[in-house]
Amino acid sequence: MKIYKPAGRAREYSPLSLNYLSHCDLGCLYCFSKRLTDMQNMKNKGFKPIQVIKPTASDWARIEKSAKKMQGCNEQILLSFLHDSYCDAEVGETRRLLKILNQYGHKVSILTKNPENALRDLDIMKAFGERFKIGTTLTFDNDADSLQYEPGAPLPQSRIDALKEFERNGITTWSSFEPVIMPSQSLNLLNQVVGFIDHVKVGKINHFGNYSQQINWAQFLADAVQILRNGDMDDRFYIKKDLLDFNQGVYLSANETDMDWLNL
After folding, report:
1. pTM for the full model?
2. How far apart are CA 252 and CA 247, in angstroms?
3. Mean pLDDT in runs of 10 for the chain (264 residues)?
4. CATH 3.20.20.70 holds for 8-257
5. HSE-CB for 245 with a 13 A CA cutoff
């Protein structure tokens, strides 16, 4: 458990990351990690939360050593890729980690499907000042689909409402539109957040059988960019590489295809 440099698609989210819990209890059917998906894909059996493995005393010592060693790196750290920082099984580990990272002056970005739970740590987040931002993943615009594909996660309106509360409190907010499973729903959600959110990252879906081949990604990209332009979001969004491959003449600035442009 230490700060590390992610690779591949993960690198598009942040130059650095830190995973401090093992597993997650949200049960998302599209989870990128096969070892999690095999356990969580219980669509016909009913959702059963997974045990979340938490840091031990030695893990915390390793984390603090890493934070101290990386002090002054001036690069954003994402929390995190193997779990949700505010899943229901989390009972204070994230707050403890934020205190450590703030002590050593790090920049931190959180991506969570439960920003409502994250509001309990608003005080420590404010202590970071401009070195902190929080985002949420938005996938479905209705409760039924969300419950089917993300059985342990909060409903979409809860995520949006919590982000608005962070925005009212002066915290930088963002959203990840990945995976995109039902393009029309992702576009509807995008319309709902462009009025208040600071920035967004837009991708597609991978590792979900042949589902991706059924979607007109060129059209989705064009529609998403149009919504962002209409919402005065120029240079405040990033189109991920997998989606960018489908671009058919839509103008994008250099910043809008620069994976580091929106980092802290």
Report:
1. 0.92
2. 10
3. 93 96 82 52 54 90 98 97 90 97 98 97 98 98 94 94 98 97 97 97 84 91 98 98 97 98 98
4. yes
5. 5
Task: Please give the structure tokens belonging to residue 154.
Answer: 């909060």
> 235: alpha, beta or left, given left = phi > 0 and alpha = psi -120 to 50?
left
Place of tokens 């949700």: 84
Query: For residues 156 and 118, is the Cβ–Cβ distance under 8 A?
Result: no
The residues facing 238 across adjacent strands are 201
CA distance 153 to 86: 10
Q: What one-character DSSP code corresponds to residue 258?
A: -
Q: Tens digits of per-residue pLDDT, 149-175?
A: 998 899 999 999 999 999 999 999 999
DSSP 8-state class, residue 137: E
Backbone angles phi, psi at 107, to 5 degrees: -95, 135
The neighbouring-strand residues paired with 4 are 17
Q: How distant is the alpha carbon of residue 45 from its chain centre?
A: 27
Report CA 225 to chain centroid distance, whole Å: 20
Query: What is the crossing angle of helices 217-230 and 183-193, to 10°?
Result: 10
User: 148-179 burial string, b = 16+ CB within 10 Å, else e?
Assistant: ebbbbbbbbebbbebbbebbeeebbbbbbbbb
237-239 vs 199-202, strand pairing mode: parallel
